[in-house]
Predict the structure.
Amino acid sequence: MEKYYYAFLLIASIAVPLIRSFETRIRFWRKWPALFAGIFVMMLIYIPWDIAFTRHEVWSFNHNYVLGWYIFSLPIEEWLFFVVITYCIVFSYEVLRYFFPKIVLPRFSLSLSVVLGILFIVLALFNTHRLYTFVVMSLTGVLAVLQPLLKTHKTWLTHFFLTYLIMLAPFLLVNGALTGSFTETPVVSYDDTQNFGIRIFTIPIEDSVYLLGMMFITFMVYERVKKP
C-alpha cells in the first residue's frame, strides 16, 4: 500500500476544493480555462527545473512511495503535484476574494513585494554555490520585483499575499508528509549541500520560496486570462 502514499496525499489535498468548485457562489469551474493556462505556463518553467535537479541529485524520489510511472525521470505524482497544489491555492484565493473583496492594501503589497524581491536576490547572490538556493531565490526575487512594474498591487497582489500566508500552513503539512514527517524515510530527499540546510521540521526553508515562485507565475497568467 505504501506505493500509493504520494497519490493518496494528492487526492486528499484536492478533494474538497474540487467538490466545492461547483458551488453556486464561487463558480470556480468557470475559471478553469484561466487556471489551467496559468498552471501550464508555470509547469513550462518548473517541470524542466524539477527534471534537471532530479538528474543532478539536488533532490530524489523514494521509489517505494510512488506508483512507478515516470515521465522524464519524474514520477507521475510529481507532475500532478504542480496541478493539485496550484488548483487548491487558486481556489482558496477566489474564496478569499469572494468573502473579503474590500481587503486591498496596494502600498503594503507593493512594499512587501519590493522588499521580498530584493531580499531574495541578495540571498541568491551570496549563495551561488548552493544550486537550489540560488535558482529559487533568483527566480522568485525577479518575479517579486516585477510586480510593481506590472502594477499588480493595484488589483490582485494583496489577496495574493494573503492567500500565500493562509496556504503556507497546509502546504507545509503536505510537504512535511513528503519530506519524512510521517514516514520512516522521506518520499523526497534533498542534498543539503545544495540548500541552506535550514529546515522547518523536515522541510528545507527554500521550499516556501519555491511555492511563492509557483504562485507568482500562475497568477500573472491567471489574472490576465480570467474573465470577470
Observations:
- DSSP finds seven helices and six strands in the chain.
